[in-house]
Specification:
Largest sheet of chain A: 6 strands, mixed
Oligomer: heterodimer
Helix content of chain A: 25-40%
Strand content of chain A: 25-35%
Number of strands of chain B: 0
Radius of gyration of chain A: 24 Å
Number of helices of chain B: 8
Shape of chain B: flat
Distance between the termini of chain A: 39 Å
Largest interface: A-B, 66 and 52 residues
CATH topology of the largest domain in chain A: Rossmann fold
CATH architecture of the largest domain in chain A: 3-Layer(aba) Sandwich
Strand content of chain B: under 5%
Helix content of chain B: over 70%
Number of domains of chain B: 2
Order of helices and strands of chain B: HHHHHHHH
């Protein structure tokens, strides 16, 4: 179905090729998993199959890619789009329309199909995927998981033979991943050829016929799914891959509890008359690392906005050091590291980012903080020129400069490979060792088990603390799916 | 994708008509008529609250023109009249624009523009832009949150701080805009947006009674304008 021969690709203004002499045959109806560390070239390989390269993205390309017998570079993009459905990583930006029905219809409308046929196909897919609940909805009201399912359905409207998916689960909670797994199984049973690049692997255990492991632009190993999911932990980690199955907690990570930094007393939050959270009681101590998880829309973000004083509670109060604390004081105490860290870097250089907040900022202190965050080398760089991990460290540095005591991380590891995830974990542990309290919103069960000393599960307008000696992920997955 | 409602072409004509008429024929009765017409359409489309809000602002601006402006002079007159008269005159246009943006899906827009024989090189960037607008709102909120947590220095004068403030917003916004528009484009291209064939619509839209009614109304209004002008000249 897909034949790739001697493919080499270099992005413009880069010296090193991202794809080096790739040769790969994918048969009709085969499900292929591409895995490897970030930057190994798996997303780029997908883009050469769906035609984004060379039709939209420029670069130097040699070798041949054919899909269903047609050479990708000789076939216009709109024709390729009927043959190959594409699903991307970011649920927020992969829709062209703002309501689900228009998005479903979009691909067939572009292909000029008659309206009756489009409507019939919409009904057919709705039944096949079981997505009645997604029809006629605004994109903005849908959860990340719902959006990804809609994206797959939209990609299937023209009944393409091939489906390429680029990290489709990066932003999904465990329950949504289970739904995704079911839908991929349906498509596989229909004989679709599926190529999927992923960091999260365990959900593909029963699906992947073939697994290609990529390293710096090459396919270094190609094996059957069965063999791949049987490799041992050491090999897995040496390849830089995420866990192949959820496993029990390896070591206990209960840090010593220090002084009480934050205390919530009967906190509630509402948007207008709509109550989101109510009756919250919790405490955070120095050294605490608290995982926050729950379904999309359960109120995790609202909880964060309350803790850092961006939203005034509709009832109850916060205490710090035993004293009542206004939302302004909360803002002075807390630092958020956002999922999209681009929104929170304002400086003209890395050092400026540290000095910008106060008039009497201490330059020696800034140098120290930058050294701690391993950013000294990029002292004069513009924050936007940094890598994702460096930006995250810079956001933490800005918080440390203001001596903030509560740190909140929003999905810090979405779309990260094993090594990068470990780095994030270590960074957060370091904050905890410095006597900070850390909250981490995450769907990443591997991180949750490795990092958190406690876990809040947000549901039905309240939070429950989860106690589990053998790891949170099992309990959380059960709660989410049950 | 609701059935019924106005055709996208009618909404485009309404927007153009409002913009031209309000500025070419500076008569209060005409401006009020256009404002009332747009408000009525918004109410029919279901956004009652927002229409009422606009109505209050508009009424206040008119009242200011009649009761407050005659008592002012100099700089105060200038400043107040910018808001009460010039900005007020924009309001019917803003409402017609909102009507177009809020009640039209991207594919309807593409469809309608294609029927008007506007080339695809123009319509696709336009549709991507329109699609990006609601995303900006969300992003501004993130930036605002981040700023509030950072407590920036209050050094410098008013102008310096204002400029700094603009800068603080636009850099992050620009960076994410570039990324976002790339991603939206990828989504559109992989769904075949560039297909040169005639695009269809899941719900085939034709000019309906509502469209003819509104266009007739606009034609009648034009006739009325010409008639009153002639009468004035005579």
């Amino acid at each position: 179905m897909i034949r790739i021969q001697g493919l080499t690709f270099t992005y413009p203004e880069q010296d090193e090729a991202v794809l080096k002499d790739i040769t790969l045959d994918i048969g009709r109806g085969e499900t292929v998993l591409l895995c490897g560390v970030s930057g190994c070239g798996k997303s780029t390989l997908l883009r050469t199959i769906n035609g984004m390269i060379p039709h939209v993205t420029d670069g130097e390309i040699t070798g041949v890619v054919t899909v269903g017998g047609a050479a990708v570079d000789d076939t216009p993009m709109y024709e390729l789009s009927r043959r190959t459905g594409s699903v991307f990583q970011n649920p927020k930006s992969q829709f062209f329309n703002l309501d689900s029905d228009s998005e479903l219809a979009f691909a067939m409308e572009n292909a000029g199909r008659p309206s009756a046929e489009i409507r019939a196909r919409m009904e057919q897919l709705t039944e096949l995927f079981g997505i009645e609940h997604l029809r006629g909805r605004s994109i903005y009201e849908m959860s990340g998981g719902e959006k990804q399912i809609l994206a797959i359905a939209s990609a299937c409207m023209n009944d393409p033979d091939v489906l390429v998916l680029d990290e489709p689960t990066a932003n999904l909670d465990p329950a949504a991943i289970v739904t995704m797994q079911k839908i991929l199984a349906v498509l596989r049973s229909q004989g679709k050829t599926i190529v999927i690049a992923e960091h999260r692997l365990s959900f593909l255990r029963e699906l992947a016929d073939t697994v290609c492991i990529m390293q710096s632009g090459r396919i270094v190993q190609r094996m059957s799914g069965k063999d791949f999911f049987a490799i041992n932990e050491d090999t897995r980690i040496s390849l830089g891959l995420r866990q192949l199955a959820s496993r029990p907690l390896t070591a206990s990570q209960k840090p010593a509890r220090g002084e009480e930094l934050l205390c919530a007393k009967n906190i509630s939050a509402a948007y207008g008359k709509h109550k989101v959270l109510s009756g919250l009681f919790f405490k955070a101590y120095a050294g605490d690392i608290i995982g926050v998880t729950g379904r999309n829309g359960a109120g995790k973000s609202t909880l964060f906005r309350l803790i850092c004083g961006l939203q005034r509670p509709s009832g109850g109060r916060f205490l710090t050091g035993g004293k009542n604390c206004s939302d302004k004081q909360l803002r002075q105490h807390s630092c958020i590291v956002m999922q999209d860290v681009n929104f929170q870097l304002f400086g003209e250089s890395v050092i400026d980012e540290c000095m910008i907040s106060s008039d009497d900022a201490d330059e020696a202190k800034a140098e120290k903080v930058l050294a701690d965050m391993q950013l000294t080398k990029w002292r004069e760089s513009h924050p936007m020129a940094l890598s994702g991990g460096q930006k995250q460290r810079l956001a933490i540095a800005a918080g440390l400069m203001q001596d903030k005591s509560v740190y909140l991380f929003d999905e810090p590891t979405s779309g990260l490979d094993y090594q990068s995830m470990i780095q994030v974990r270590d960074r957060i542990r370091e904050l905890s060792q410095r006597g900070k309290a850390v909250f981490v919103i995450t769907h990443d069960m591997e991180l949750l088990d490795m990092l958190c000393s406690r876990c809040f599960f947000v549901h039905d307008g309240g939070i429950s603390e989860i106690y589990a000696d053998d790891g949170y992920s099992r309990v959380v997955t059960k709660l989410l799916c049950g | 994708m609701k059935a019924g409602g106005l055709d996208v072409r009618t909404k485009l004509i309404l927007l153009l008509y409002t913009a031209i008429v309000v500025f070419a024929v500076p008569k209060l009765w005409l401006e009020v008529t256009m404002f009332a017409l747009c408000s009525l359409l918004h109410i029919i489309y279901g956004s009652v609250r927002r229409s009422l809000k606009y109505l209050v602002i508009y009424a206040v601006a008119v009242a200011v023109q009649f009761f407050l402006l005659p008592k002012l002079s100099g700089a105060a007159l200038m400043t107040v009249s910018i808001f009460a008269v010039s900005f007020r005159r924009l309001m019917p246009c803003i409402m017609a624009g909102r009507l177009l943006l809020q009640t039209t899906t991207a594919s309807e827009m593409l469809n309608g523009l294609q029927k008007l024989h506007i080339p695809i090189e123009v319509t696709i960037p336009l549709a991507v832009t329109v699609r990006y607008i609601p995303a900006v709102k969300e992003q501004l909120q993130h930036i605002r949150d981040a700023r509030r947590l950072r407590q920036f220095s209050k050094r410098g004068g008013f102008l310096h701080r204002a400029l700094r403030s603009v800068e603080l917003y636009y850099v992050p916004l620009l960076v994410s805009a570039v990324q976002m528009s790339d991603e939206i484009t990828a989504a559109a291209v992989t769904r075949g947006i560039e297909d040169p064939c005639r695009h269809t619509s899941a719900l085939e839209r034709r000019f309906g009674t509502a469209d003819y009614l509104l266009l007739t109304l606009l034609a009648a209004l034009t006739a009325l304008i010409i008639f009153t002008r002639k009468a004035a000249v005579a």
